[in-house]
Structure formats: structure tokens, C-alpha cells
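COMPLEX REQUEST
Ligand: FE2/S2 (inorganic) cluster
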Amino acid sequence: MGEELVTADQLEERMDLGLLNYWYPVLPSWSVSETPIGITRLGQKIALWRDKDGVIHAIEDRCPHRGARLSLGWNVGDRLACWYHGVQVDGKGNVVEVPAEKNCPMVGEACVTGYSVKEVRGAVFLYFGDELNQEPVDIGLPEELTDDEEYGSFLCMAKWKVNHRYAVENVMDPMHGAYLHGESHSMAAGDKSAEMHITKTELGLIFEKVGQKGVNFDWTELRETGVQALRLAIPYGPEAGPGGAFTIVGMCTPVDREHCLVFFWRVRQISGWKRDLWRFMYRNSLEKKHWDVLEQDRLLLENLVEDARDQEFLYTHDMGLVRWRRLLQKKAKAQLQAVAEAKA
Ligand code: FES
Ligand SMILES: [Fe+2]
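STATUS: Structure written out below.
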């Protein structure tokens, strides 16, 4: 019942632009200053700025008066003033002043969307709720991002000209490590063929090679904790200094239907002087090597044939991404359905 409330196009659009009711990283922290900045994420236009205390505000990038971009306007502390006629909108999306007209009825109205904001480990996260879920959900990040004592990390972000679904599927496919990155510094070892296995976990699932761990990119974990996060580990040889394998915590944020941002925290369980040494080595040599690997992913994905998904011949190694696809579709449908039913 109710199935027909959601059209195939709506479903496809939601899957292309990203599920709602999750937190997504949208920018590295350093890129948000007191000067307003305008971005597009999940197909939504958003203006962000920092107030005098360094707190970030994020609102829909649209002046409720006549549609000018608020990000082109002025930061007046906890609000933005539109460049066109000076209307002021606060961080919750409420109009607080209309300087051009006395007693304007727009004052006090909540006219545009305000986003909840969090800053974690060098990234700005926004919560994207649908009509029924405006209150942000809890965000449960992997301990690699919450335990600063234990784990050191670098955030790397890249913009790819590919739909986010392909970028996530790429991480749900550990076997590509031994081929696409087979010549790289960290993924040259191990079997070129494997049996794959899925284990359901409390937070999501782990997709892994049977009988090979700690040799190449051998497993991926998908975690659903108010944010969709991916975890994987890649071994580091002795030439990469102390600290053993390094973990990647990845998140992918849709920009629009053709672009996405990938956020990768490169993490090592390391502290004290060893962490300093790793940071030094990272900056001096490892970072470049990691970027080279990421470029291989970008090049491959940006050049997939058009509508690659419609002409695939999947085999068992693709179980991990198939599982993620099902999850995406199920959740997208449920979200749209709930809103459509509430409206009906
Ligand atoms: S369009 Fe923004 S104040 Fe007129
Ligand atoms: Fe890769």
C-alpha cells in the first residue's frame, strides 16, 4: 500500500543526491572563515560563515526577499546581510531585520532552512533532515576520529566528477586494490584473487577477503551511525615509520548528480614522538604517494562509461556494493514514502 506515492524519478533523484536524515561532512574546517562562502551539497545551496567566536552557521543560500545569494552578502556576526537590499537572516534561517522598510512583516519569519553544524577532526559536518526529521540525529563517529590521544590523523578531501554512488561503491570493493593500485607503495602485495565474505555487524557490515588480512586492502566496513562512514585498513611497510597499518575512515558527500566530495581521514594508532615522526614523514613523502593512489581512483571513476550501472555484469566480488545499493534504495524509498504519506 502507498507504493505509488513515490515515483521512480523521485527515488532515483534521492539516491543520486544522497539520503537525508544523516550528517555529512561538507568542507574542511580551514575553508570556513568570517567571509561567507556558498556551496552546493546534496543538491542544496548553502551559505556558511563563522561568527566572532569562531562558531560556524549554515543556512540555505537564498535571500527570502528576492532570491539573491546570501553568501554574496555580509557577515554581521550571527547573521548574514543580503547584498541586494540588506535583509538580515540569522543562523536558524529567521529574518531579523529588513533595513529598507519599517515594520516589514518578514521580520521574525523563519524563511529559509537553517542547518545544524558540528566540527570534528578538521571537517565541518551539517545535518540534512527531511520534512519529518528536522531534529538532528546523534552522530556516532568511529573512535579513530573521536579519540585524539590514541589516534593521529590527516584529513584529505577531493572533489570528483562522478556521482557519489560510484565513489562509495569503489570503497565497497576491496578487490580493486590489488589491480588498480597494484603498482602502488601500499597495495602491491597479496593474492590477486580471493573469496569474499560479508558479515553483518551491529552498525552495518564488513565485507572482506576470506583468508587474507593485513596484506593489502582486504576489508571494508560500512557503519551507519547518523553518518555513513566507511573504514578500511592498508598495511604500511617499515619504510613508513612506526605505528603499523594505517586506517582510512572515509565519507562521501554528494554535491550534485555529477559530482561528489570524498573525505578521507588517514589515521594511525600512534602517539608521542612516534606520531610526530609519522606526521613528518607524511608531509615529506607519504602524502604524495597517497595522493597518487587516490588519483588512480579518481581517473578510473571519472572515466567510467556513461550509465555504467545500467550495463554491468556483476560477480560475487560485487556483493559488498550490491548490499550497499540495496540499503540505499530501501532507505531512499522509506524516506520518500514517509514524507509522501504524511502529506497525503
Ligand atoms: S534580495 Fe535580498 S534583500 Fe532583496
Ligand atoms: Fe582505490
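REMARKS: The helical segments are 8-17, 143-146, 164-171, 177-180, 272-302, 319-343. DSSP finds six helices and 18 strands in the chain.
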